[in-house]
Hints:
Elements: E1 6-18, E2 30-33, E3 36-41, H1 43-57, E4 64-67, H2 70-80, H3 87-97, H4 102-105, E5 114-117, H5 118-130, H6 136-144, H7 149-154, E6 170-172, E7 175-177, E8 184-190, E9 206-224, H8 225-232, H9 235-251, H10 258-261, E10 269-275, H11 298-312, E11 321-325, E12 336-338, H12 341-356
Helix pairs in contact: 1-9, 2-3, 2-5, 3-5, 5-6, 8-9, 9-12
Amino acid sequence: MRNRLYLDIHILQTVPPSCINRDDTGSPKTAIYGGVTRARVSSQAWKKATRDVFRETLPETEVGVRTKRIQAMVADELNKLGYSGDANAGAHTVLIAAGLSEKTLDAGRDSALFFMSRVQARNLAQLIIDGAELNKKQVQNAMNASPSIDLALFGRMVAENANLNIDASCQVAHAISTHKVMNEYDYFTAVDDFPSEEKSNAGAAMIGTVEYNSSTLYRFATVAVHDLSVQLGGMDLAIQAVRTFTDAFIRSMPPGKMNTFANKTLPNTVYIIIRPDQPINLVGAFERPVKASDMGYVEASAKELVKQANDAKKWAMQPIASLAVGDLMAGIEGIEVVDSLGNLLSRMEKELEGAMR
């Protein structure tokens, strides 16, 4: 197997008026890039949306849980295993033995979310069932073994105990628009469907504003396939996990204000590059904001994306494979274009299998 193998996913996707990811004031998130304001969707928002797709498509045992109620999670596994003692007390004992603090187990407002797979919770519960004398290393090994797909991809950081950290095999960039944007406001009114007859109640029952923008987004994620193979315990499992992630990341959409804007779209083009040396974010293609034309932003953005990918060859090794779906990539030298997402994922699998052997 190669020492390094990276899968880079580049997506161009138009989004209509929407507020996918908002800040503390309710405004759509933005960023300054290339000297102008861009629409922005945080990496955390898109990772959460991807994990939501995992929950729809994968068994519960293969999906991690982020929760403040980690003690209750382990206690639940103890009950499932038929533990005859106090499950909550048993869970508390094994988690303290792992090196976690009372504050973490308190599940109060100030405690942090803890990311753990169902299998890891069951591993801890089994230690209590077996009646083994608990030592920190044994418990930490049980807590770190058998990560779920999303845990292996996105990692786990435990500030109070670095031995429980799990390195992420995947990085997701903040999505930004390929062009300049200006936020707009929707002024709305609502009437009372069951009004009184008093004249003072005539007119709108409620008024307000919703801030939004629209954009063509550039989205990027990369997976260190070699690291994922180590974490999941094998090349075949890693390739299947990469396929699962790629499919979910492509089709996902953060749900912010979805009922207000019905903004669920699919990508205009997906461009996958398999690299033997390092991941490369191609956002530099849009440092100079794309200008609108009669063809909109997507076609011009695709041209700039391919140009940036070709320029990257001056600095990086030749890609193992370049695959795409979408008419915008048709006829471009060095890119194999397929006609559907399913075929893209199948070709990606074959290229990864060949590269990892």
